[in-house]
Amino acid sequence: MLYFLSLCAFMAYSVVNAEVYFEEKFLDDSWENNWVYSEHPGKEFGKFVRSNGKFFNDAENDKGIQTSQDARFYALSTKFKPFSNKDKPLVIQFSVKHEQNIDCGGGYAKIFDCKLDPKDMHGETPYEIMFGPDICGPGTKKVHVIFSYKGKNLLINKDIRCKDDVYTHLYTLIVKPDNTYEVLIDNEKVESGDLEADWNFLPSKKIKDPEAKKPSDWDDKATIDDPDDKKPEDWDKPEHIPDPDASKPEDWDDEMDGEWEPPMIDNPEYKGEWKPKQIDNPNYKGPWIHPEIDNPEYSPDPQLYKRDEICGIGFDLWQVKSGTIFDNVLITDDPEYAKKVGEDVWKPTFEGEKKVKEAQDEEERKKREEEAKSIKENEEEDDEDDDDDDDDDSTDAGDVEPGEEHDDHDEL
């Protein structure tokens, strides 16, 4: 009991002290006043609709914004009070539901600084962070984690696989002030590490010494030919020989067909190219390793994690088949608060919609079975009717046709 009370007190303290920079659950239609569609020329952007999809746990709480048109670019964003994550964690979290069995399309979000113009947002608009799932065919099912750094967009050097089923999944990125990060899916850590190690923010600390050269007498061959090994005198045999069992056909005409030659077959005595056996090289020094020196162009950056200004988030993506639902958008400085939101909001949605979907699938299965059974019964009835028609058309041997009489044979 004491443990439970302590845990509740800790969670309450965490929630109270969490800095929530932005949160959107799309609980009503007010999102249309806060989010702005791009009007960037040259593209036909698709529209989002507020929806809970074809299967859900709670009719209202599970509503998010859903892509509604196939083969469209989508560009929707909103701005909020600017902040910097200096000396604090940065947590970006949202849920994605690909209920349409997505074949090719993005499910990621972009984080912007205050230079964002929502009405002109497009694929080339500079962003601070891009995070979330991306699927296109069987070869691309990944979670993007991209940071902008000194004018370049840097992709993570690791492959993080995203979820590709039809249920709602929670994606969380945590960037810490010690220059480490974590990626969570459904509140479970799927990747983590060091920013400098997993992105090409900085040049390598070490480079190969340009002045160093492999010595001309360096022998890096582990084995050499045995100088005492000699090829046997009877080694050389032809690879192919005339077939000794072949004979010239009786109808072969040398004048017409040319001189007959037996077909060639593999020589069973052929041993291949002779090579001397190998022995250890007495002069072997091992592989030569190029010496490294400190890279003069390398300069450490203890603030790789830091974003000087964040004040916008948007969905800038392409979808071949629409139907993706985005929800539970959160930007905060507290990983524990984000985790609690996941437990309280995402988890009931996931568990509930899974039960509903499984029930729907079972109902569909039974319906298909009933339809198949009905079709089979109708086919069997049709076959029986056909058989009856055939019987009616035939005449029994004992039947008398109209006008026909039986001849009586009186043996007396």
From TrEMBL:
GO terms for molecular function: calcium ion binding; carbohydrate binding; unfolded protein binding. Its main location: endoplasmic reticulum. It is found in: Endoplasmic reticulum lumen. Residues 208-265, 282-301, 337-412 are annotated as: Disordered. Residues 208-250, 337-377 have a biased composition (Basic and acidic residues). GO terms for cellular component: endoplasmic reticulum lumen; endoplasmic reticulum membrane. Keywords: Calcium, Chaperone, Disulfide bond, Endoplasmic reticulum, Lectin, Metal-binding, Repeat, Signal, Zinc. Residues 1-18 form the signal peptide. It comes from the Eukaryota. Disulfide bonds join C104-C136. Residues 251-260, 378-412 have a biased composition (Acidic residues). InterPro entries: Calret/calnex, Calret/calnex_CS, Calreticulin, Calreticulin/calnexin_P_dom_sf, ConA-like_dom_sf. SUPFAM superfamilies: Concanavalin A-like lectins/glucanases, P-domain of calnexin/calreticulin. An alpha-D-glucoside binds at Y108, K110, Y127, D134, D316. It holds the Pfam family Calreticulin. GO terms for biological process: ERAD pathway; protein folding. Molecular calcium-binding chaperone promoting folding, oligomeric assembly and quality control in the ER via the calreticulin/calnexin cycle. This lectin may interact transiently with almost all of the monoglucosylated glycoproteins that are synthesized in the ER. Belongs to the calreticulin family. This is Calreticulin. It comes from Cryptotermes secundus.
